[in-house]
Amino acid sequence: MIALAQEPLRLDANAVDYTLLAVYFAFVLGIGFLARRSVSTSLDFFLSGRSLPAWVTGLAFIAANLGAIEIIGMSANGANYGMPTMHYFWIGAVPAMLFLGLVMMPFYYGSKVRSVPEFMNRRFGTAAHLVNGLSFALAQILIAGINLFLLATIVNALLGWPLWVSLLLAALIVLSYTALGGLSAAIYNEVLQFFVIVAALTPLTIAGLNRVGGWEGLVDKVTASPGGSEQLSAWPGTEMTGFSSDILSVFGIVMGLGFVLAFGYWTTNFVEVQRAMASKSMSAAMRTPIIGAFPKLLIPFIVVVPGMIAGVSASEMVALKAGENADVEYNDAILLLMRDLLPNGLLGVALAGLLASFMAGMAANLSSFNTVFTYDIWQTYIVRNRPDSYYLKMGPWVTVVATVGAVGTAYIASGYSNLMDYLQQLFSFFNAPLFATFLLGMYWKRMTPHAGWSGLVSGTAAAIAVFVLGETGVLPLSAQGTSFVGAGAAFVVDILVSVVVSMFTRPKPDSELVGLVHSLTPRESRRASHSGEDSGWYRRPGVLAAIVVVLVIALNIIFG
């Protein structure tokens, strides 16, 4: 019988580790103060004045997603399910990122909208705009709560402070630099945080593989574990989806995760799109998600693999997988590995990496919430026609309100042992129906304003209904399997309702849809420049995307 830890998880950090953390926080706050100097208009605060180069926005694009949920959630999934977790990257991210860059960004950037809900307003009118703005704002507060909860967990593990104290301290840190410099502070910190995260997790992965006897040793140990050899192959992923049929499992992964959830998240989620909108040109905006796709291909090797290692080497995690009453959750996988493997000094670097990931995720939520709430809710429906300086001053105060809301929603996140379950449910509620509305509205000019808002509401209701059926046991699926089905239901219901409503309501005239509908938008306005700063084959979005496609196919073949 494996001896279980009865004490709360603690990380044995010393003065060296705390010094490294202090240096890191000094850099973070310093960037916030420097970014403040370049903020003179609301566009500077909310969209960095649309002046940033593609490599900066590309790294920020991926770092904004490489938050607490990615690190803790994917390592938890790695410990729980193994290699099928790779689908969240190679199937559930990269194809949608390429679609965003090549197809969606010409419409977003070319129309010069300040947010995704503003695009909805131009295409479908105020009802769809308000529904999208309010649902997006709610989603960001809920997701920021996840990042904040995990950031507070690290503070708690380091200092042993109560959760509520840790939550307030963690919230204050992120609030300080986001309120100071707006999106520029968030983006430049995200670039810094990207490199800190990679520097932190790479040694952890190497040390973990060394502990289990290299890759072959990991294969042997996973094969002998309760999950068995199925956890060493990405396909068909039946344990993760909850489907007993291999065919249904593959279909659920490809359609539920790879199409509906992934495209819904990456192409309509303003947290990500905002980074591309901050680029200095159409070409840079298109390249932003494609540049981000390159590290996205490799991140699972420093996130999922450590989770797999923890699942077969950390005694508490081994007990949990065996069904014993361990005092840990799958969310603790990466922390247990850090505790067992890293000496002081390296532990400080790893902790800085974790804190960086949590702050990057939460700052991304806050900065996108700021923009949508200020432009799409406050300026549009509450206080109109004020000078730009008024809305610039609103930014920091909205950040404070969002942070307070995140403190509250962090307690919801604390009730989930695997936060990916919670996150995928949120995506099925908010992102899947939005993608259906966007896709139909961009390619079918007959879709009407009434269809825009009614499809969104109906799709969200369908996803919630599937969630309730899963929670009550009517649908015998795993939590993530339920979210895949819910996303599919939301997409289909949204499309059906939108088509039916469009047949009985009046569409907008063609003249109002130029730049918003594919068939009515001149091809020249959707093309990226290939001259000046955008010249060179390595700056062509199509070429970069083709390289990514080859790499993602190769990875699926090797690890499938």
UniProtKB/TrEMBL annotation:
The keyword Membrane applies. Pfam families: SSF. One of its GO terms (molecular function) is D-glucose:sodium symporter activity. One of its GO terms (cellular component) is plasma membrane. It is a multi-pass membrane protein. Keywords: Membrane, Transmembrane, Transmembrane helix. It comes from the Bacteria. Its main location: membrane. It is found in: Membrane. InterPro entries: Na/Glc_symporter_sf (IPR038377), Na/solute_symporter (IPR001734), Na/solute_symporter_CS (IPR018212). The chain crosses the membrane at residues 18-35, 55-76, 88-109, 130-155, 161-180, 192-209, 247-268, 289-309, 346-373, 394-414, 426-444, 451-470, 482-504, 542-559. Belongs to the sodium:solute symporter (SSF) (TC 2.A.21) family. This is SSS family solute:Na+ symporter. The lineage of its organism: Bacteria, Bacillati, Actinomycetota, Actinomycetes, Streptosporangiales.
